[in-house]
Amino acid sequence: MKTDHFGKDIATVLLTEEQIQRRLVEVAAQVDEDYADRDILLVGVLKGAVVVMADFIRCLESHVTMDWMAISTYGSGTKSSGVVRILKDLDTDLDGRDVLIVEDILDTGLTLSWLIENLRSRGPASVEVFTFLRKPDAVQVELDPKYVGFDIPNEFVVGYGLDYAEHYRNMREVGVLEPSVYGR
Ligand code: PRP
After folding, report:
1. pTM here?
2. Which atom of ligand 1 is the closest one to the Cα of 110?
């Protein structure tokens, strides 16, 4: 769905469809180079990563397989706490695999740092991260994702998989949500 259709809910467009697609091609080329001749297991975290995964996987020339986890972070409203529960685990045995986590956003970093530790404990050959968005001003833990799509300001963003109250995930662009929508 186009951003215009969301009317005044979107304060500003941060990333256009063209910018997003161009960046995905660049990141995919880097991943192809780094993983030459290795089979990558892409691990997505439901639900936010669905959209970026769908586009990113088609930019890759490497052989890949894909698996998904659903996790729930305990926290109130827009804040995550780092306390995580697995709702749906991977179907894939990670023993000896090259894992590339695909995330939509690294906000505080609490979710990703938990996930990296959890996956590393399963005996993979490697675990790396591609996060589509990162908020450098919000990060609370030391994390160094190998691939970052875009660094963005510490604003409430929606679209391209990212939601507010489960809405806006189907917006084609990434935009800043008008604060009145979430009652700030
Ligand atoms: C979002 C996002 C990350 C996490 C990032 O997930 O997909 O997993 O928050 O936040 P953090 O860096 O502060 O831990 P959310 O729990 O909103 O679920 P969703 O993917 O279903 O939207």
Report:
1. 0.94
2. 14
